[in-house]
Each structure stands twice: as C-alpha cells, then as structure tokens.
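can u do me a favor
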C-alpha cells in the first residue's frame, strides 16, 4: 500500500484535519472505568477504632473466619500461644523487628508493650490489622490478625501469624 502524502492547502501549507470527536458517552465510560479501578485497588477499609488492649486482652475475633488470635475462645479462630524463650525486655525489640519485616506492613502504633501494624495484600491492597501485646510481667505474647473487609481471607491471617511465629522461633525469642 503506498504511503499517504500529507494534505496541503491552497497556499502549500500543511493542512491539519480537525481532531475526531469522541462518540457520545465515551468520556463518561472512561471516567466510570477510572473510578472503578481506583475503588477496586484501594480496599483498605476504615481503621477500626476499637483495636488495642481492653481489660488486659486484645479484642475478640468476630464470627467471620477472617481473623485469628492467640486468645480466641473457639478453635476456628485460635492459634497457639507465643511462649517467650527470653526475658520480655529482650523479646520486644525482636518482635518489633519481625513485624516490621513482614512484606507490605506499616507499623501504626508501637508502645513498650503493644504494637499495631497494617498489612496490605499484594494485589488488591486489602488491609489487615496485626496486633501484638506483651502483658506486664508476662511471658506469653498475645497476637491477633484480622481482615478489615470481606468474609473469608483464605487463611492469609493464619499464615501471617504462623510466619511471625517462625521468625521469632528462628531468632530464639519464642519457643516452638
């Protein structure tokens, strides 16, 4: 196919065609798609206002299966306790470092005995809340990890807590 020559007007200058008009509704569809993508990829949900320690314990898990805790009353939500193998004052810096090393985690609150981190999923950015508490004079860490949105987490929170346990066992902070 031969190359098209540019159109010239009567004075010999290059003639530029008017830009093609978009089909009606195309702009609206583009905006709708953009807004949908932003909503899809920002699945953080609102930060719960009732996180933390109350009456010496972390908040209980909800009835949904997207939460695990060392202090859960039922087997579906319970994970084994984190029994310290070292003194609490030696354990806490290692706990902070292990939580900080979790991919896509961001520590929100860190005190001398409580830590709250937000952990985002790799693909859609779903945010889970990971909490660790070391009661004063205690030798057992309380750990809770829960999804903010949805019903099931496909075991993500349980795997996260067990990975945290493995890291702390590897560093000699928690017993097997």
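np, heres the sequence
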């Amino acid at each position: 196919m031969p190359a098209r020559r540019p159109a010239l007007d009567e004075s010999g200058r290059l003639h530029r065609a008017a830009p093609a008009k978009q089909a009606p509704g195309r702009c609206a569809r583009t905006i709708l798609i953009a807004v949908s993508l932003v909503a899809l990829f920002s699945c953080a949900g609102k930060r719960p206002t009732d996180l933390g320690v109350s009456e010496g314990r972390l908040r209980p898990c909800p009835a949904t299966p997207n939460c695990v805790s060392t202090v859960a009353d039922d087997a579906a939500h319970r994970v084994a306790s984190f029994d310290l193998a070292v003194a609490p004052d030696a354990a806490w810096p290692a706990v902070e470092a292990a939580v900080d090393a979790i991919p896509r985690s961001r520590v929100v609150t860190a005190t001398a005995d409580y830590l709250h981190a937000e952990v985002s999923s790799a693909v859609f950015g779903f945010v889970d809340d990971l909490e660790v508490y070391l009661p004063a004079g205690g030798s057992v860490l309380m750990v809770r990890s829960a999804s903010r949105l949805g019903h099931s987490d496909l075991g993500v929170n349980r795997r996260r807590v067990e990975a945290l346990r493995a890291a702390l066992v590897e560093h000699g902070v928690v017993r097997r």
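DSSP finds three helices and eight strands in the chain. hope that helps!!
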